[in-house]
Amino acid sequence: MVNFPDNFTKTDITPDQIEQFHRDGYCVVDQLFHPSEIDEIEAFFEDYKSQKGELFDSQYEGFKNFQDIDPTKTQLRAMHPHRYSQRVTDWFFNSKVVSVLETLLGTPPLGAQTMYYYKPPGAKGQGMHQDNFYLLAAPATCIAAWTAIDTADLDNGCLYVAPGSHRKDIYCPSSNKVETWFEYGDSHINPFPRELKPIPVIVPRGSTMFFGGNLVHGSGPNRTKDRSRRTFIGHYISESSDQVARFYHPVLNPRREVVSRLQIPEGGGPCGDGWTGAVH
Ligand SMILES: O=C(O)CCC(=O)C(=O)O
Q: Are 99 and 10 in contact (CB under 8 A)?
């Protein structure tokens, strides 16, 4: 039986969803954003492509223009757009999303990262990973709020998750071989544990999927000819965190204030000396 905290007055998340989050490592919650806000997010990021092209991230080659990124080879995504726009910061700290995060974390959230995936037809998938391999939030792991701007399904590249893997430690790479689970590549989890059984999670437009930072997840390629799979993503850490990797500073609290007390891990994390986190 799950109890809502005393200050939780909304009916934004049900006890069943909370139980699923703790049992399986994820849950999907409807309508935390008003449909008109989803329209606004969609319009904003279509415009962003032309206005802020230099802010598009390519993990392996540095920042790039939107039009220079080949989505069959590299994720086509805006990185940290909240750093450039107050509107994105407002969506990052949508009050209903913050309430749900507080319920799931048991503490208020702090905002570490935003991303917007465009994932157009033909785009590659995202290799299987755990977010906290990159964020190195401690002592508690991080959490994601992943809001579908297009319905995400099997054809356009929805997320796959390994239920229950959120209870595992971080998997540290144990060989240099690139693991190609479903040939999606880019995974720090190699070899891929055969006991993990990833399942697809279909998320309708406007719904938000929450998942913990140790949950093993990735996404399929977009196999459609005419449907994007666009997603607005926030990554958060617990207010009780002592540290998060360098790439995620400055961290903001829901009042939009910079939280300066957080340390930057300099090595010796779960994957040993020399690994200090990264963009993911
Ligand atoms: O949306 C995707 O395809 C991947 C997103 C992801 O891995 C994440 O938000 O941690």
A: yes
